[in-house]
């Protein structure tokens, strides 16, 4: 393992971030379960119906997609922000600049650790979703799971990809606040743009469209390509900033 | 070992460093003195490739491409990952600096007197011990060039004396080239072999540290000397 990858892995694992994000990413499953099993509470049941959440596996899937489309983006964005912003908050940034290990290697190691962890969180959440649905003995089992699982995994993967550019805001803004602000701004503008049908050209609107926040869940044409290009651009510009900006 | 030629940095209309040239040879401690805002930190960041010069050039070890594995530094205070122990912080540094010998971590801990604190989290260290950790990170890989910005910050008098001894030993016994910046002449005077004074981005004067007793003229303290040197060498004074 390269020195940069080793150090970023140790820094991450020795922090509270793995536990905090692990717990936080189970909350959407609990929330979705709450909506699905809300038939006893008239107010909650009404809200669930309005959102198209039925007390079965398809409804559980819809609920989780909707929560992840917004909440997942927020959580992932915060983690990416933390990964880069901590070097400025802890004031360790300058220690990473004049080393035989290149700045690009350090940036790529940060992205690798972040992406790996976010994908693991996605797997954890998917497992929790399957386990909770089984425990609740929801009707419409295997068929609905087979249909819903690819959408859920795709949404998580897209969300991971779209939060990577937040690293540039946390780096250029030299701290947590700009990264969190960028995450919120991208989330809000993504949902707003999706409602006007702009998911075909605005990549951050794709999760909202796929999550069904604006109606029927759908993946816009070229959605995957624009998201992949956005993630690549985010990684490249962040690496370039670390390499060339005045520090 | 390190040579800067006509180094200049401008931020818009403000010139932070203006045509500064300096050279630090192997086995020499160079004291880089200036008031707050004189341009010391900007110069150091340019020497370390952290800031791009507007003009001029820097050469390390007489090579166009710097070999950072031979450089150690402490810039902008001593900082470490607060959740990691002293030893873990140094282990990260060892790997990033590509120091192949794992024992280098323990050697640095011993050299900087951090043995009682090796398993303590960096976030719980006193300011003085945090500074020692920063210095340990800088010297861990036995660099050929050491650049230290205000290294005595936060150290108690005993720590300052130890640091002085360590730096002089590294320079005179191991042949390390050391550039130490400070705004306290008295401290630099006891450590450096040669002193350069920077003011408003320009290097006003350089002289051997052994010339200092002559400058004091018997009655002035070193702070007075520093201020007089600044005044005497400013261009308006020369005019």
UniProtKB/TrEMBL annotation, chain A:
Keywords: Membrane, Transmembrane, Transmembrane helix. Pfam families: ABC2_membrane_4. It comes from the Bacteria. The chain crosses the membrane at residues 63-84, 105-132, 152-173, 180-202, 222-242. This is ABC transporter permease.
TrEMBL record, chain B:
It holds the Pfam family ABC_tran. GO terms for molecular function: ATP binding; ATP hydrolysis activity. InterPro entries: AAA+_ATPase, ABC_transporter-like_ATP-bd, ABC_transporter-like_CS, P-loop_NTPase. The keyword ATP-binding applies. Gene3D superfamilies: P-loop containing nucleotide triphosphate hydrolases (3.40.50.300). Keywords: ATP-binding, Nucleotide-binding, Transport. Residues 2-225 form the ABC transporter domain. Belongs to the ABC transporter superfamily. This is ABC transporter ATP-binding protein.
């Amino acid at each position: 393992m390269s020195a940069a990858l080793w150090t970023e892995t140790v820094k991450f694992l020795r922090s509270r971030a793995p536990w905090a994000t692990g717990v936080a990413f189970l909350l959407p499953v609990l929330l979705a379960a709450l909506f699905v099993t809300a038939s006893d509470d008239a107010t909650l049941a009404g809200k669930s119906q309005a959102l198209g959440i039925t007390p079965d596996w398809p409804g559980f899937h819809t609920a989780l997609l909707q929560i992840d489309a917004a909440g997942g983006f927020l959580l992932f964005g915060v983690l990416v922000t933390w990964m880069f912003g901590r070097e400025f908050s802890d004031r360790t940034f300058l220690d990473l600049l004049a080393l035989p290990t290149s700045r690009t290697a350090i940036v790529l190691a940060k992205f690798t650790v972040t992406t790996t962890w976010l994908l693991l969180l996605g797997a954890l959440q998917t497992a929790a979703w399957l386990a909770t649905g089984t425990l609740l003995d929801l009707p419409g089992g295997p068929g609905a799971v087979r249909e819903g699982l690819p959408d859920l995994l795709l949404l998580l993967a897209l969300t991971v990809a779209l939060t990577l550019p937040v690293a540039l805001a946390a780096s250029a803004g030299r701290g947590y606040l700009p990264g969190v602000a960028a995450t919120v701004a991208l989330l809000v503008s993504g949902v707003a743009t999706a409602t006007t049908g702009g998911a075909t050209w605005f990549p951050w609107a794709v999760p909202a469209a796929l999550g069904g926040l604006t109606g029927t869940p759908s993946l816009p044409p070229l959605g995957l390509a624009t998201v992949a290009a956005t993630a690549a651009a985010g990684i490249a510009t962040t690496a370039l900033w670390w390499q060339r900006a005045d520090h | 070992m390190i040579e800067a030629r006509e180094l200049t940095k401008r931020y818009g209309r403000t010139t932070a460093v203006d045509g500064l040239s300096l050279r630090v040879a192997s086995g020499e401690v160079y004291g880089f003195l200036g008031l707050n805002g004189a341009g010391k930190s900007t110069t150091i960041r340019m020497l370390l490739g952290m800031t791009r010069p507007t003009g001029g050039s820097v050469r390390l070890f007489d090579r166009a491409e710097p070999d950072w594995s031979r450089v150690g530094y402490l810039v902008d205070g001593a900082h470490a990952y607060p959740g990691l122990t002293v030893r873990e912080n140094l282990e990260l540094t060892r790997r990033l600096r590509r120091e192949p010998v794992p024992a280098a971590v323990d050697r640095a801990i011993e050299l900087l007197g951090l043995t009682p604190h090796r398993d303590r989290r960096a976030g719980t260290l006193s300011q003085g011990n945090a500074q020692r950790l920063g210095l340990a990170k800088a010297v861990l890989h036995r660099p050929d060039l050491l650049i230290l910005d205000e290294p005595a910050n936060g150290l108690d008098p005993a720590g300052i004396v130890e640091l002085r001894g360590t730096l002089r030993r590294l320079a005179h016994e191991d042949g390390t080239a050391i550039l130490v910046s400070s705004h306290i002449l008295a401290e630099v005077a006891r450590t450096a072999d040669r002193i350069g004074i920077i003011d408003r981005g320009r290097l006003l004067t350089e002289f051997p540290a052994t010339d200092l007793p002559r400058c004091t003229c018997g009655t002035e303290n070193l702070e007075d000397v520093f201020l007089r040197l600044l005044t005497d060498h400013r261009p308006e004074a020369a005019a």
